[in-house]
Amino acid sequence: MSEETLDAVVVGGGLSGLIAANILERSGLSIAVLELEEDVGGRLASIALGDGLADAGAQFFTVRTPEFQNWVQQWLVEGIVYMWSTGFAYSSIEAATTSYPRYAVHGGMQALARHLAQDIADVRTQTAVTTITPVGDTWMVQDEAGDIFTTRGIVLTTPVPQSLAILRAGATRLSPRDLAVLNNIQYLPTLCALFQVEGPLHLPEPGAVQRPHAPISWIADNRQKGISHETLVTVHASSDYSQQIWPQPDSQILRTLREALKPYSDERTKVLQARLIRWPYATPHPVHDERCLQAEDLPPLFFAGDAFGGPRVEGAVLSGMAAGRALVQCFASS
Question: From CA 219, how far away is CA 208, in angstroms rounded?
């Protein structure tokens, strides 16, 4: 057990948390990022299977605001991201539709999170925050190991239900307004199957099919995408279909999602390995219309993530920016 005093604690090492942490640290504040999983990234997840690599969560991102464009331009200069395409096929025979650029990340989407984490001095993975409790005009954050962080401000970027559970465990009382906003945010699930494939697979250029309203909403060949040395295919079920088949065993779901490969296969195509990933908090719906939420009547506490002004990768970045800047402003005015 240990005790530390910091200016700010960011809970969650996904994209929003890492962006907020970068802003806080650039402002000269002492901070720590506390992440539950073994690695940063959240839904920017890139998973190895066999000798291949696949994006299992977010598949690409677009740019729709000047604020996000500034970040993306820097990542392009640094060689972190690249333009994958300007659209995707909507059936097995259509060509990709043409519109604004879709960007991907060299080495998989998770490489972007790792790149951002390199600029933060204190990122602690496998750190489960159990309670957050106000103590006067500060906060006490405790993790599963019993370590305690005393801090002036907090940015919470975990999915809202998880954030609320941590606050309840610490006997933190939110205002009726805050509870109404946060309880209104729900999440839709996504089931993701990864298939290591040997033999021909004939996905149309640029290697992905997107069907937002079909039971199988996304199919992508990560080798065609340019991040895998082997043919490793990502298949996403839509939110509605994921909810429908979620209770089934993994093996049965994998058999079902494997059927999505048939239109692009022939008798030489074989699936060597398969893995299922369940994303219970894949898509926030509805989202809060502001980019972050500051809790009322408490020391500085901000909720951020793609549920605030999002969704999409861009929404997560803009939310993290907003929360980081708002917390810096709180400290400057106190």
Answer: 5
